[in-house]
Structure formats: C-alpha cells, structure tokens
Amino acid sequence: MAGPRGYSSYRGKSARGKIALAVLLVLVIVGAAAVIRLQKYVVYDDSGRPRLELPWSSGQSAGSAAGSEEEPPDANLTIQEPERTDVRAVRLPVGPLTDWAEAWAQASDGHSGCNAAVYTVKAPDGSVYLDSQAILPGALKTVEGAGAAVGDMLKADGVYAVAEIACFRDPIAASAELESMGLKNTGGYVFYDRNGDRWLDPAKPAARQYLIDLASGCAAMGFDEILLTDVSYPTEGKLNKIDYGAAAAALPDSLTDEITSFLKQMQAALAEYDVKLSVLLPADLLLSGDSTGVSGQSLAEIAPLADRIYAAVDNASAVEHLQAAVTAAGKDTELVPVLASPEGTDGSWLLAS
After folding, report:
1. Is residue 233 part of a domain?
2. 337 with 242, same domain?
3. pLDDT in tens, the chain (353 residues)
4. Of 102, 163, 338, 340, which cross-links 218 as Cys (Cβ 3.0–4.6 Å)?
5. What's the CA gap between 24 and 255, in Å, rounded?
6. Domain count of the chain?
7. Residue 252 falls inside a structural domain
8. Which domain holds residue 238?
9. In terms of domains, do 43 and 190 share one?
10. How many Å separate Cα 233 from the centre of its chain?
C-alpha cells in the first residue's frame, strides 16, 4: 500500500556529494596557493604583456631565484674615469681689463689651441684689479668698464677663466694693516725682503681671511679656477730678522704648518663653488721631493690640497719627471708647466709672460 503523499523527512546530502565538494575545495586552495607562489615569476615584456618565467627554464635554481633578483656585479667591471680637459692658457696683460675681446686676441695671437685666460686679480705689488667689498681702499685699482669687461670674459664661449691671486707678497696691505696682517721684523716694524717687498704674515687670521674673501668673490663671479702665487714666507733678505711669532719655536716645520693650514682654509671656503684650486710652486721644490726650508712650502702637504700645481719649466723634456713628482705627492693633482714656448707640448700648459 502506498504511503501518504507530502514531504518526506530530510536525511542530508549523499556521501558522493560530500566527496565532490571536498575535492573542489582542495583544488581551489591549491590553485590559490599556486597563483600566489608563481606571482614573483611573472615578468612583462616591452609591450606590457605578462609572461611566466620559471627558474628552471632559465637555467637557475629555485633557491637562487628566491634570493636577490640582481646579478652579482662583475669583478672585472671597468669604471670609466671622467675625461680631463687640458688647459692651454695665456696671461692677459696685468692691469684693469677694459676690452676683453682685444686683450684675448693679443694674448693668444700666434699660439694655436689656446682655451684659457689667466687674469691677474691681485698682483705681487698688492694692487687688486677686481672690485670687491673685501679689498682695502688703497689696493683697488679699477677703471670704468672693467667690471663689464670681466663679465664678458666669464661669459665667453670656450674660454676657461683663471683668476690669479698673489697671496702673501703684498706691500700695500702689509703696510696699511701691519698689526693685524703684516709680517714684522724683530724690532716691531714692517719687514722688507731683499727686493724691498713687504709681506703679509701667513700666521695672522686677518691676512688669511683677506685672501680667502678675495678668492671666494672670484669663485662666486664665475671664474673656473683660482691660481694662488706667493703662497710662502719670504726667502730672500735678512730672514733672521723676521718675527715669526709663536712659529719661531719650531722652525721650519711650524712655517709649513701655517702654509698648509691656510690652504686647508682656502679649500674649505671654495668647496661650495664649482671651481678648481691651484698653486704656483718653484720647480726646484718639485725636483727636491719635499724640501720645506724657510718658505714653508712642502710639495707633500700642498699637492693633495690642490687640483693643479703650476711650475716654471725651462726644458719641456723635464715635464714628465715633474708630473711624476706631483702625482707621487697628490695622486689626482695635475702639473701645468709654465713654458716660454709651449708649441708641440702635449697636455696642459701656461705660456710664460
């Protein structure tokens, strides 16, 4: 006899349905894990289309792929050094610059390949040919139009501008500011060397600052290089009559310390500008290796602080030997020979005036 019509009692899903659902759930979990795992092997080509690059397909192990993605640097990698531009320079006439084009044409005439002009900003007689608030009134020797002419030089295409500054040989400032800047004799008066010149005292802070302010002003104007000359104590005359002050207790090393300290201060002051710092030294100092003497100059101390060392050279054949001496003292320092006839000379040079 048939049973009554209507709903029968619910007894749940069948065992077969439960198994299918469990299998589906496992596959979803495995698939999600695989997507997450393989995500780091997805790369994109130049058109932006993705592709899968498995570690075993490119010849590298899964362990190495899990590490750094960058290849280790080649131990034999050669670093390209910046190319150094040779300076082939001529000095402009000493005095206020009034016509840049004419001065450049006259100075470079007959010397092919010139690309640099050396302008005397401060001469050994103490005269200054560039207007600046830092200059003593009696030292400033400019004329109308000089500032504009210097500006023309600094803006000239293809011309490397060098400001030459005579440092401690300075009769004007030494006499005008004897107490704060001048080099004295043992009697308390201004010291005169054999040539009648007077000097600033390298140990006096005011003397240093006077020169640093002038060099900084040149750098701020746009000069490419500052060339310092007379970076020394006097070497001629009655040197035993010089009042070296506190430095007298440890001569001559103390004089070297004062010169080196000054150059370090100068280097620090110019660090904010895109300008090179150079020093003119006597050739015999380079040849002797490191003879300090009473000048206070030491190639071993000065070369590492300078981008270039200038030196007057009588024979062009000695240039290579002098460059080796400079390089030994300062590995990145370049020698610029000052030559009477630079024609045929490779590298940098300055035409002797």
Report:
1. yes
2. yes
3. 444 444 344 444 456 666 767 667 767 676 666 656 666 566 655 555 666 666 555 444 444 444 445 555 555 555 444 456 799 999 999 999 999 999 999 999 988 789 999 999 999 999 999 998 888 989 999 999 999 999 999 999 999 999 999 999 999 999 999 999 999 999 999 999 999 999 999 999 999 999 999 999 999 999 999 999 999 999 999 999 999 999 998 999 999 999 999 999 999 999 999 999 999 999 999 988 666 589 999 999 999 999 999 999 987 778 989 999 999 999 999 999 999 988 777 889 999 97
4. 163
5. 91
6. 2
7. yes
8. 88-351
9. no
10. 26
